[in-house]
Design brief:
TIM Barrel, alpha/beta, globular, binds zinc ion
């Protein structure tokens, strides 16, 4: 694809995104969570970093690195949490995150009760003001809107909710589905073999019948998440960006093509 760019601090400054929105960056690769790399983002005003990682060890290291820079550490939680898996939430709570990104109601309630600020992610599918206010009532600090809304529906909804409580994803790849099945385990290993860390370190893409390549990643419980090949089409949203919004940029390691190419500098 021509015109691909990596999201960098310089690109955001050029697009004047960072100048007037509260910017949060989401990291998934421990290798990107270095003081040096984070400092560059802090230079353009970023003060909070979200970490979505595959081991408690990595979460601990991320918390330390981010705190050393006096930035906020936001722990990103898995989409699925089955009975018996809430031990993980206690371990995250022990790290004393400045906030968490909750992907389901159990996570929202658990951290609300521990007085940790909770940001609700799009997986809670908030697509009307009723759901939005319900999340606030249940203790959410900010709410990311569900992804099923088109541009017109999004702007309609935004007229009815407090803009300072909205968190907007600027760009990134959207998860198509999460599954229990670990592709690494079933494709590359013998039945008795454990995938151990293979699914968390080896990149994998699957090709659909149209030839599009979808990235597959694994979460801390070894569940696989298939992400859409095309990045989120953020151009329509950019025209609605509000000063009050908190903006999140996930997947820094992905190349983002059309967004960077089409996005106009705001007046
Ligand atoms: Zn696995």
């Amino acid at each position: 694809m021509s015109g691909e760019h990596h999201i960098t601090p310089a690109l955001l400054v050029n697009r004047r995104i960072a100048a007037y929105q509260m910017l949060h960056l989401l990291f998934r690769e421990p290798v990107h969570l270095t003081e040096e790399a984070l400092s560059k983002w802090m230079e353009i005003g970023c003060r909070s970093f979200y970490a979505e990682l595959c081991s408690m060890e990595d979460y601990k290291k991320a918390a330390t690195t981010i705190r050393n820079l006096s930035a906020a550490f936001v722990a990103v939680l898995p989409r699925i949490l089955k009975p018996g898996e809430s031990k993980f939430l206690h371990k995250i709570a022990d790290l004393k995150p400045d906030a968490v990104l909750a992907r389901n109601l159990e996570e929202l309630v658990f951290f609300r009760d521990k007085q940790v600020p909770v940001i609700v992610d799009f997986s809670l599918n908030v697509i009307n003001d009723l759901a939005f206010y319900q999340m606030l009532e249940w203790g959410a600090e900010r709410v990311t809107l569900g992804l099923d809304l088109n541009e017109e529906q999004t702007s309609n909804l935004l007229r009815h909710v407090p803009p300072e409580r909205v968190e907007q994803i600027i760009v990134g790849r959207i998860p198509l589905f999460t599954m229990e099945h670990c592709l690494w385990k079933t494709q590359f290993l013998k039945p008795a073999e454990s995938c151990n860390k293979m699914c968390r370190t080896q990149p994998l893409q699957i090709e659909d019948r149209y030839g599009a390549l979808h990235t597959v990643r694994s979460d801390i419980f070894c569940r696989n998440i298939v992400e859409r090949s095309e990045p989120l089409e953020a151009s329509p949203l950019v025209s609605h960006l509000r000063v009050e919004w908190d903006c999140r940029i996930p997947n820094l390691d992905h190349k983002i093509g059309r967004w960077a190419a089409q996005q106009k500098t705001p007046e």
